[in-house]
Amino acid sequence: MKISHYLKDKIVFILLYIITSLIISAMLSVFKVNNEAIIGVNVTLFIFIIIYLIYDYLRKNKFYSKFLANLDHLDQKYLIIETLTKPTFYDGEILYDSLYEINKSMNEKVKEYRLNLNSFKDYIEMWIHEVKLPLSSINLMLHNKETLSIPKVSAQLKRLDDDVEQVLYYVRSENAEKDYLIKETNLNKIISNVAIQNKDILLEKNIELEVQNTNIDVLTDAKWLGFIINQIISNSIKYTRDNPVIKISSQDQKDKILLKIYDNGIGIPKRDLPKVFDKTFTGSNGRKITTSTGMGLYIAKKLCQKLGHQITINSKENEFTEVTIIFYKNDFLNIAK
Predict the structure, then answer these.
(1) 323 C-beta neighbours (distance < 10 Å), count
(2) What predicted TM-score, i.e. pTM, was given to this entire model?
(3) Handedness of CA 164, 169, 174, 178 (dihedral sign)
């Protein structure tokens, strides 16, 4: 810290001192104080000011010189706060406290990114194992022509397509706001598209699909909602029992619209219900169905939150499961239309 820079920073203080000294000298002269006394007062005041400036410069120079030197030698500049002791002057304290808060905030952000990255790595590893299964099945059927069946190949390709779509939406869900457009969309149209996607497996498993009262418009993004509904229906198909039925219906209420997706499958144990939207949670049913990843409902809930929807689930073991998606009405958007 150069003394010239320090004095330049103190120029207002020095000017005020000079003006104050002149005013005091003038006042003492008015009261007919002798010149020796006036000179003595000014000399005393000058000495005090010099002592203060020297003291102030030395303590600030010590702190800022160390600060700049450490910063220059550090490869990881954000660690600068670890090399400093808190100064005793106010503006230094402000700098120190600000650097501490900045460093703390950055560490928390880095920790969050690391957790997300580790979580993503774990999911990708699990996803790769899941993708290998339908690929191995198709490869085995191709080598053993006696077991080759178009419906079976189609089922494996559908499973592979769902796995690829799931990881794609998982990655995009981190920045979903950049990829969706909320507008009035007809539920019946989205449900029809999802039914067509699952047509072959619904026929293969002889699952009855009932759709009622879904010719209604909601404020959403068709692509994201289609994925969410497909995840729910895929779960319903995965956990079927005898005489399987999937029922889809909607209810138009005063301030919201409810989309209900019901199945008479194996249901969910009561102890597992609070955790079904947790990442990678498969619960008791996951141990029965080895293809469960525990990611479908997690991603579905995450996307619903991004879209401003709410998703809930109700179930009774060995009886039914009902998933409800809640669309809240927005008068502003309706007027703006």
Answers:
(1) 25
(2) 0.68
(3) positive
Distance in angstroms (rounded) separating the CA atoms of residues 337 and 332: 9
CA distance 97 to 216: 56
Asked if residues 239 and 204 have their Cβ atoms less than 8 Å apart, the reply is no
Give CATH 3.30.565.10 domain extents, the chain. Answer: 180-336
Q: Nearest Cα to 158, choosing from 179, 133, 190?
A: 133
Question: What are the φ/ψ torsions at residue 259 (nearest 5 degrees)?
Answer: -110, 120
Strands 320-328, 245-252: parallel, antiparallel or unpaired by DSSP? unpaired
Which of 263, 268, 265 has its CA nearest to residue 286?
A: 268
Kind plus residue range of the DSSP H or E element containing 265: none
- DSSP per-residue letters across 131-153: HHHHHHHHHHHHHSGGG--HHHH
Could you read off the pLDDT of 259-313 as tens digits, one per residue? 999 999 999 999 999 999 988 777 766 556 655 667 889 999 999 998 889 999 9
Tokens standing for residue 290: 């080895």
In single-letter form, the type of residue at position 69 comes to A
Beta-carbon neighbour count of residue 308 at 10 Å? 13
Three-class secondary structure of residue 337 per DSSP: coil
The answer to whether 106 and 79 are in contact (CB under 8 A) is no
Report whether 285 contacts 337 (CB < 8 A). no
Cβ-count burial of 206 within 10 angstroms (0-12 exposed, 13-18 middle, 19+ buried)?
A: exposed
CA 210 to mean position of chain CA atoms: 36
Among 318, 323, 246, CA closest to 288:
318
Tell me how long the chain is.
337
What does the pLDDT look like over 49-100, one tens digit per residue?
999 999 999 999 999 999 999 889 888 888 888 888 899 889 899 999 999 9
Q: Which CATH class, in words, describes the domain spanning 180-336?
A: alpha beta
